[in-house]
Amino acid sequence: MLPSDPDVLVIGAGCAGIAAARELAARGRSCVVLEAGPRVGGRAYTESTSLGLPFDHGASWLHQADDNPLTLLARALGVELINHDALRQRRLVTQGRFATPEEDRAFATAEQDFWATIEAAAANGAPDRPASHAAPQAGPWDATIAHWEGAQICAAELSRMSLHDFATTALDGPNLIMRDGVGGLVARLAAGLPIRLGAGVDSIRWGARGVTVEGAFGSLSARAAIVTVSTGVLAAGGITFDPPLPAATQAAIQALPLGLLTKIAFRADHPDAPDLPPFTSLRRAVTQDGDRPMSWISRLFGDPVMIAFCGGARAWAFAGVPAAAEAEARAEAAQIFGARAAAALGAPVVTRWAEDPLFRGAYSHAMPGAQAARTTLARPLADGRLCFAGEACHPRFAATVAGAWESGVTAARAVP
């Protein structure tokens, strides 16, 4: 049974909403979590039907696991956590072949130089600027590293990202994975919470005396609300606010757009399918201006699955057209493994975060000059009667389940 007169309304049952609801319960506050979709987890979503094996459509790793709040929660549930960094081989393809050991060492050195340059530029006291302005550009591997660190990891090109935010939110290992996926873990953490599915919120009336939310489900009032929907939804006007949000909050939402990372996952049962060891990560070097290679992960847990990752502008270009995503991923596979191996890949699953109206993208980045936007968005309004939470609100672990979780806890502690 859901509370009929809750203290707090939580909008969205992703990581931030689940964390907020758990924290509210721990503090003796009643709440109702209103989720527009048919499931919990938000952008942490694992399903096993499409491939016959667990597949993370969104969040896949517990990054910087020693500082990640979900690590302890997973262990408390008895979830086996595997250090992907300790198992995977990192392979680089250049000039149509696998890199030599000397090229691998040169690439690793260039990566170290990239981060040393970025960190020095972010700390030199100069005004914020696009991260691309600080990135090395003269070396033979620099374009590949910029593409990898930008579009393929952050889901947006470095030219679209704040240098200061990019440097501050860079993550370390270990990077942990689990057999039932991050989505499976988050769904277990939601068990027993007062969640109402299929309850999309259209409007929120807020002020010093509390909040009232409305949607197709009707109307609910409470002392406070925690809004955890994505900045993609907020920027598109998916929820109207009465009175309108303060100008600074609106500006922060616009300054934290969602990038896009699309996964194209293929069954690889056929004997002619690409043959890479389990857990292998594969990158292809940039060959010319405008080249935006996909990257691959092979056979996680030994399963016969190959996953292509495509981020940034290239992912947006085929958003909503899964056949185009499949064709481009097969073309990438053919470049590396040959046409026969690419054709041997099975029917794919293509993630659909861009066109889903409940998300409108993958995860956030701060635009150049907007390094303070995350803390601005997270600042409680009306003495805590209206709070925002989610990965976009975390100044350190942005774009991760850790950031979403911690922001949900922080918001729950801010409500009166």
From TrEMBL:
Keywords: Auxin biosynthesis. Its EC number is 1.13.12.3. Signal peptide: none annotated. It holds the Pfam family Amino_oxidase. Pathway: Plant hormone metabolism; auxin biosynthesis. It catalyses: L-tryptophan + O2 = indole-3-acetamide + CO2 + H2O. InterPro entries: Amino_oxidase, FAD/NAD-bd_sf, Flavin_monoamine_oxidase. This is Tryptophan 2-monooxygenase.
